Please model this.
Amino acid sequence: MKFLLEVDMADEWTSEEAARELGRILRYWGGNLGHYALKPGDGAAVYASGHQEAGRWRIVAADGT
Model:
C-alpha cells in the first residue's frame, strides 16, 4: 500500500505561511488517521487553517491504483 498526500500550496502563501500550514496539516491529519482502517480506497480532504480545502490524502494499492 501507499499513503499519498497532496496539498495545493496557495500561490498567495509566503514561504513562512506555507511551512506553517503544511506543519499544521501534517500534525492534524496525522493524528486523525487512527479513525480510518487505512486500506486502499480510504482518504479524505485536508483543510488549511482558514477551513478551505487544500488537498487530500488517500491510500492506494502498491501499484498506485
Summary: The chain has one domain: 2-60. The chain has a mean pLDDT of 90.
